[in-house]
Specification:
Layout (H helix, E strand, L loop, with lengths): L4 E4 L5 H12 L3 E6 L6 H6 L4 E5 L5 H15 L4 E4 L5 E2 L7 H28 L3 E6 L12 H21 L4 E8 L11 E2 L10 H11 L11 H11 L8 E4 L1 H20 L1 H6 L3
Parallel strand pairs: 1-2, 1-4, 2-3, 4-6, 5-8, 6-7, 7-9
Helix pairs in contact: 1-7, 3-4, 4-5
Length: about 280
């Protein structure tokens, strides 16, 4: 596999960190961005010629564009952009604060949109590239108590589904990665809304009770983070770019069941759907 230059957001922890480590160990160059880039100091010391770092809050659009511009100017090209930064919020819709709602949309949906818009001129100019968006099986299923997380992921997938054919003629491929639950600190980093007593015992309340009862909801998850990272990296060399990449047996089963149920619902309404035609 020829060495490439990757641009990674959320590179300091979780899958972003693991992807960065594996890329560097394989000889690739990485422009690694994070809110706290000092968390990458150990990698910078080990791979001084391969690792480029920058502080970045992806919800700051002006800063995002500036960092992309610097990376292009200093590294010359970006072969693969891995949009990984994000986190989840938990709580019934009524329990969510205005700030938490705004953050979920800004971090999980708006930021990836602006990142693609920022890198696209470079990818077009160099004759192509790959954009990999970290999504989730939660872009197909829904869980009571996680409505805003699902909304942000369903929304960002709708954007990339539409944009993929727009940029295909420029040699730019887009892949949406849809993992199941992975053994990372994702569960420990959930933003949990203040509880309302009215929701105790409801579906959303039961989800909250489960999360409150364990130290980290992803500690015993089926997904192996090292294998997930390796699969993400390998996808960059698959041609044409896979539109979606489900990772994990739980992701495969949940997504397939959701799609089958949706088809069944559609078919059940066929008579009504066709009855309104002229």
């Amino acid at each position: 596999m020829a060495a490439k230059t990757w641009f990674v957001t959320g590179a300091s922890a979780g899958i972003g960190r693991m992807v960065t480590e594996q890329l560097l160990a394989s000889g690739h160059r990485v422009a690694a961005t994070a809110r706290r880039p000092e968390a990458l100091d150990d990698l910078a010391e080990k791979y001084p010629e391969q690792l480029w770092t920058a502080a970045l809050d992806v919800t700051d659009t002006a800063a995002l564009r500036a960092v992309v511009g610097r990376a292009v100017a200093e590294l010359g090209r970006l072969d693969v952009v891995y949009s990984n930064a994000g986190r989840g919020s938990l709580g019934a819709a009524e329990e969510m604060t205005d700030e938490a709602i705004d953050e979920q949309i800004a971090l999980n949906m708006t930021a990836p949109i602006h990142l693609l818009r920022a890198v696209l001129p470079q990818l077009r100019a160099q004759g192509g590239g790959r954009f990999i968006q970290m999504s989730t099986m939660g872009a197909h299923i829904s869980t009571p108590g996680a409505s805003m997380y699902h909304a942000s992921k369903w929304g960002v997938e709708g954007f990339f589904e539409s944009v993929a054919p727009e940029v295909a003629s420029f040699g730019v491929g887009i892949t949406m990665v849809e993992p199941g639950v992975i053994r990372t600190a994702f569960g420990a980093n959930l933003d949990i809304a203040p509880a309302m007593p009215e929701y105790a015992g409801t579906a959303a309340g039961r989800m909250r009770s489960y999360v409150d009862s364990v130290d980290n909801v992803t500690a015993d998850a089926p997904g192996d983070p090292e294998k997930v990272a390796a699969a993400i990296i390998a996808s960059a060399d698959v041609s044409p770019a896979p539109r979606r990449l489900a990772l994990g047996s739980d992701a495969y089963s949940a997504i397939r069941a959701a799609l089958a149920a949706r088809i069944a619902e559609l078919d059940a309404g066929k008579a009504i759907a066709t009855s309104v035609d002229f």
